[in-house]
Amino acid sequence: MSDHTNCKYLVESAQAGSQPPKLKYHAGGIWRESTTDTYMNCYNPSTGEVIALAPQCTSAEVEEIIARHGLEEWKACLLTNEFHRHLGIYSLIGAKMGTRARELLQAPFDTLEVISLAGNKPPLSCLNDGLQVSTGASLGRGMITISENEKQPQPGAMFTFQKHKLTLKLKKKIVDQVKSDIQAAVNKFGGLNQAYFAHVRQLSIEYWLKLDRKEIFEINWGP
Ligand SMILES: [Zn+2]
Question: How far is the CA of 129 from the centre of ligand 1 (A)?
């Protein structure tokens, strides 16, 4: 979706022979013009030329995410981005997953035990950072472990709070969508370079807004 829109602007700009185009941002299913004055350069990986300018969203745009998903999830996602050092799809899904688990179990911070099913290999294992930040079950506190029994690591986790156990897994339809978006980005930019990360950043913001934590997980109660 972003691709098409961005391409349209890139083509228009090339025809006009003007400055690099300013990209729009995607919120609530609509492409919008940011009112920000701050833009980030996006580079063509083969020439190093600046091909587009991505908006750094303003407080009004931030408020839109908070209105949709609530302050609790916002804080978890924001801290996850800081901790993880870049905006990524799986790390944000981990933050949404941990927030959802705490909600379903009515568990305060720092009370959950978590077993991640996401393995140790990025980008899938990026989920583990979102899980830690959103639950307080950190490696340092010894409250999260990464399951080694998984033949096929997956975006999921088991949560224990007092006598209650809960397993959340990202629905297959969304897993497939994320995988194909990441693969398409790798193909398009030819590897994990600056243009790839600029694109993934934008994709992540779309997913952040679009994915409703109350709808995206399969829920299983019990041990
Ligand atoms: Zn990551």
Answer: 9
Among 23-32, 100-109, 178-187, 193-202, where is mean pLDDT lowest? Answer: 23-32
Q: Treating both helix axes as pointing N-terminal to C-terminal, what angle do 89-105 and 127-135 enclose, rounded to 10 degrees?
A: 40
Residue 133 CA to ligand 1 centre (angstroms): 14
Q: How far is the CA of 78 from the centre of ligand 1 (A)?
A: 14
pTM (two decimals): 0.77
Cα 169 from chain centroid? 15
**How far away, in angstroms, is 222 Cα from ligand 1 center?**
30
* CATH of region 70-221: 3.30.1330.130
Domain boundaries in the chain? 2-62, 70-221
On the question of pLDDT at 9 being above 50, the answer is no
- Ligand 1 midpoint to CA 10 (Å): 27
* Residue 202 · residue 2 · CB < 8 Å: yes
Distances (CA, A) of 154 to 91, 120, 150, 192, 202: 13, 11, 8, 22, 23
Q: In angstroms, rounded to a whole number, what is the distance separating the alpha carbons of residues 39 and 208?
A: 20
